[in-house]
Specification:
The chain contains 18 helices and 27 strands. The chain has 554 residues and is an alpha+beta fold.
């Protein structure tokens, strides 16, 4: 049994911090899949033609918070973590779950016990053995308050206990059947770390990360670079890979380059080989010139969305929210700021996420005439300055922004402000680097934008369940309260039938749009620009880059 009570007290306060920083599979009784990646003759020929070796530098847009996979709360950290660490399973692009450090698993008849057979002969970078004891330690470490593994512990909330069956067999016992358990195990936050290294480093493990992945940690210079080297003893089995054995690259360096122009310019000038998060204007230029390679992957999870505070007046009235939405031209915002390189979002989920309801597409809602009419019906009359008033109060909308203009999100607020002048709303943009303290106060803001890369639609529960408001440790930025949606969210976590589960998520999406709890804006395309010599950069099921196969032509 895990003692989780102290954890629940701390997670209420700390989970809000994640706001500033930032599955589904149907299980059969037994799953067994080969991890050999070289059975295809074409891949064998490719292996023979690849020239191994070389140094590869990849520019990150921001610095990771930590390289401890259990404690990290930032997507950018995962770009590095996936090269150092491995998980028990991984998620294919069709949402099925495949073995990784596990080779197979069985599920009990009551769907509450999962027994995993583990790969033998796997070593951590420090030379210690990967085995069932290591897995058990990792789960216990996640539930240890000292680890500060708040997101990871939330993901594993259904786990009652873990038992070592033998050296390479581990059993998870759940409190209730779960439709998400296998998928959650594929999350990078549940990567397996070296027990010996973690115990030795304590809360400094993120500065000395040791896993079983194809690259081992060398050094980290704060806000400058992270250097990894090939792990020569790596014996293959990496997801989405074209080869087995050690990685091709000798050295993998992640350079921290916050400035967009500098990132892309450094690739163009051959100072580094690749850079992430290419700005829209550069995407168009790269496509036109053909002088660089460009990869673009739609990320899975929750799109960038404007969450309307459902508790602050007048936005606690659905009619006022309808009027607000009708006054915002999302199409114009996306096309103007992203030049056709970003897709418009229509729902609380992205189109690559399980359960996405494509029937919501095309239902725009932008109608200035309708917006003005609804506000008039609500008693909000325009004053001499063009701003609406009612009972002596001006119609205001307070937008909470982060200090960094990531993906032009501050620019979105500016465009919303200009558009809403036409319907008589005084928009106040409040920019802060300490958003977490504001978000915990339901009365402190009216609109907040956010997104989330997610491996499973169950993350909707963190954003829309009544018990997940930010003052309770969740990410319910809209302070949305709906008992029916709560029931659907809870049912979807345990529903074993995939079609029924997908339908539950479609009902949730429709209800959120119907009640205008949110205004979806764009789907983030993860983009990478690289020199022409870069070969075989791959991406996982939710859009993270994978460097195991990367090789450089001369």
């Amino acid at each position: 049994m895990f003692n989780k009570k102290p954890y629940s007290l701390i997670i209420t306060v700390i989970m809000v911090i994640l706001l500033a920083l930032t599955g589904c599979s149907s299980s059969t009784s037994k799953t067994e899949v080969s991890v050999n990646k070289t059975t295809d003759s074409e891949n064998k020929e490719k292996e023979q033609s690849v020239q191994a070796g070389g140094d590869f530098t990849f520019a990150l847009s921001t610095a990771p918070d930590t390289l401890d996979p259990h404690a990290s709360g930032m997507a950018v950290a995962t770009r590095v973590i996936k090269s150092i660490f491995e998980s028990l399973v991984y998620q294919e692009k069709d949402n099925t779950i495949k073995p990784w450090l596990a080779t197979e698993w069985s599920v009990s008849d009551n769907k509450k016990e999962y027994t995993f057979s583990l790969r033998e002969g796997v070593k951590f970078h420090d030379g210690t053995d990967f085995n069932a004891d290591a897995v058990k330690y990792n789960i216990e470490r996640i539930f240890d308050v000292k680890t500060k593994a708040f997101t990871s512990a939330t993901y594993l909330s259904d786990v009652e206990s873990v038992e070592v069956v033998d050296t390479h067999k581990i059993k998870f016992i759940l409190k209730q059947p779960s439709a998400t358990f296998l998928t959650i195990l594929a999350h990078s936050n549940l990567s397996i770390v070296s027990k010996e290294a973690a115990e030795k480093a304590g809360d400094k493990f993120g500065l000395h990360p040791i896993g079983t992945g194809p690259f081992k940690f060398v050094e980290q210079v704060e806000n400058d670079r992270i250097v990894l080297a090939k792990f020569e003893e790596y014996n293959g089995g990496y997801p989405f890979a074209k080869h087995d054995g050690p990685a091709y690259l000798d050295k993998l360096t992640f350079k921290i380059v916050p400035e967009e122009a500098t990132r892309v310019g450094s690739v163009q000038s051959n100072q580094l080989q690749a850079a992430e998060t290419v700005p829209p204007q550069d995407i168009l230029a790269i496509e036109k010139s053909g002088q660089l390679k460009l990869w673009e992957v739609e990320t899975a999870g929750l799109p960038y969305t404007l969450f309307i505070n459902n508790t602050t007046a007048p936005w606690n009235d659905v009619k006022a929210r309808q009027a607000l939405k009708a006054g915002i031209d999302v199409e114009s915002i996306v096309n103007t700021l992203y030049l056709g390189t970003y897709k418009r979002a229509w729902s609380a989920l992205t189109s690559t996420t399980l359960g996405y309801d494509e029937s919501l597409e095309g239902k725009d809602g932008f109608d200035v005439k309708k917006s003005n009419q609804l506000f008039e019906e609500l008693g909000w009359e325009k004053g001499k300055d063009g701003i609406r008033e009612k009972d002596g109060n001006k119609l205001t909308l307070r937008i909470l922004n982060d200090a960094i203009n990531r993906e032009k999100r501050q620019d979105i607020s500016i465009m919303v402000k200009e558009q809403l002048k036409a319907v008589g709303i005084d928009v106040i943009i409040e920019t802060t680097s300490e958003a977490r303290s504001v978000l915990a106060d339901a009365a402190a803001y009216d609109l907040r934008g956010n997104s989330r890369v997610a491996i499973d639609p169950d993350d909707l529960r963190l954003f829309y369940h009544s018990k997940q408001t930010t003052d309770k440790g969740g990410i319910n930025l809209a302070w949305y309260q709906n008992e029916e949606v709560d029931q659907w969210l809870e049912a979807a976590t345990t529903e074993q039938d995939a079609a029924t589960r997908e339908n539950l998520y479609k009902q949730i999406q429709n209800k959120l749009i119907e009640e205008v709890a949110i205004i979806p804006i764009y789907v983030f395309p993860y983009t990478v620009a690289a020199s022409l010599q870069v070969q075989d950069l791959a991406f996982d099921s939710i859009g993270y880059p994978l460097f195991y196969d990367v090789n450089l032509t001369q």
